[in-house]
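Repro case for the chain-ordering regression, as requested:
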Amino acid sequence: MVKAFGEFLLFIQSMLTRKERLAVLWQRTLDECIVIGINSIFIVAIVSAFIGAVTCVQIAYNLTNPLIPKSTIGYMVREMTILELAPTITSIVLAGKVGSSIAGGLGTMRITEQVSALEVMGINSASYLVLPRILAAMLMFPLLVILAMALSIIGGYLAGSLTGALSAQEYIEGIRTDFIPYNIVFALIKSVVFAFLVSAISSFKGFFTQGGALEVGNASTTAVNNSIIAILVADFLLAALLL
Amino acid sequence: MIEVHNVQKSFDGNQVLKGITCTFETGKCNLLLGGSGTGKSVLLQCIVGLMKPDLGSITFDGTIFTNNKVQIRQEIRRKIGMLFQGSALFDSMTVYENVEFPLKMLTPEMTREERRDRVEFCLKRVGLENAGVKMPSEISGGMKKRVGIARAIAPNCTYLFCDEPNSGLDPLTSIKIDELIHEITHEYGITTVVVTHDMNSVVEIGDHIIFLYKGLKLWDGNKDEILNAQVPELKEFIFSSSLVRAAKKVDDETQGGLAAATTDEAINI
Ligand SMILES: Nc1ncnc2c1ncn2[C@@H]1O[C@H](COP(=O)(O)OP(=O)(O)OP(=O)(O)O)[C@@H](O)[C@H]1O
Ligand SMILES: [Mg+2]
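-- result from build under test --
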């Protein structure tokens, strides 16, 4: 465990020494942004809209006290999704999607000697293959999280109005009560940290794959497992430190 | 000329290379011959710098490669082209982009047009002028090897390394790939190192042959000498193929040709 962590740190260091030209790095990062960001919009949108809708319906179900105003439902949907559900659930979903594709992609390149081919050309394969993926993830996760925030609030709105749990006016009133802008900043900080964890852990697992197709599959699975655990631990630590 | 001096390498106490000293000559096809598991690939990886030898040194035309400064190692690496056992083409790129890739990365001063000319030249040289738009998954194994060669020679390499260029190919395609490597070597005066265990390649392109056995160099010489070599392990290796045995028999009976061998014991080992 400690050894693995040490190797992980060395891996991050090797990626930062002997970097490629900036133009190449930028181009590669843009390419990865498409794979990591654009291709994940659909799944993130679906998940977050439903999370918002379900949160709204379930809070409404639990909130039976007539003394509490209905607008509280909107307020709670906002607080829960912005602070916790949008960044964390989105990152966990992305750990599954992006993490496995990073680990699988790098693992395949390793076992088919494509990584060696880069090394023989004198290219620092870690910095050429991994750094753009990490940068792209750190750029794209926050954007996807912002999308998730918006869609889960809209999802809550639709669910609330369609099921008749509360009126549109009450929901919007709730959304606008006691808004703390710092919560959004906090959520975005979380998403950047999660992005780093998911992409770096998955790259590490994929990059050092040894063996054949079976090991590539295993590397993907471990990458996703470890990423999710890391997200949850980091979530707790950040909440304890920054809130 | 590449000089390998006393290179040793072990994995977890299992010594794979036990002190190999040999030279690979400029403008020739140097063959690394040996059975499976004798450490040919490991030696090749030590030479190109994918693995670090435990002991010993490797020198490229007088410049020490092992443990030298990063900059000098980079300089040498730029002159190295390599064809991998499984071709190792980048599967997210087309054939054209694969060949263009080392040019893009290593010579940023080249313009797009210059690169295009060079890629087209290299693809033409390996006989694939029309395959540029294809993806690696759409072409056959033999074509992949050709693309691998084109990619290796694109940046005007001085040293070419091929790990089993004809594994998994039919005899005819194998010979074509061998010939291609041989021609390119002589045309551009490249120092070529080919890892093989194929006797066809030996008689076809073996300008200089180094025989490895269990991590040791047991013999070196050229293709005309190999059939008369007096090393038992090498004899066993060569004459394990019944085709070679038959050819040698005919050869002996007619007393001529490539190997005017006289020793009968070579056949009767
Ligand atoms: N990365 C590694 N870790 C541990 N052992 C290794 C490693 N690479 C090679 N070996 C061992 O080194 C020995 C020689 O392997 P090598 O791949 O060089 O054989 P080879 O001569 O190329 O054989 P083949 O003709 O089958 O390719 C084998 O016993 C192998 O188990
Ligand atoms: Mg091998």
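Ordering looks correct now. Residues B 40-41, 163 surround magnesium ion (ligand 2) (CB under 6 Å).
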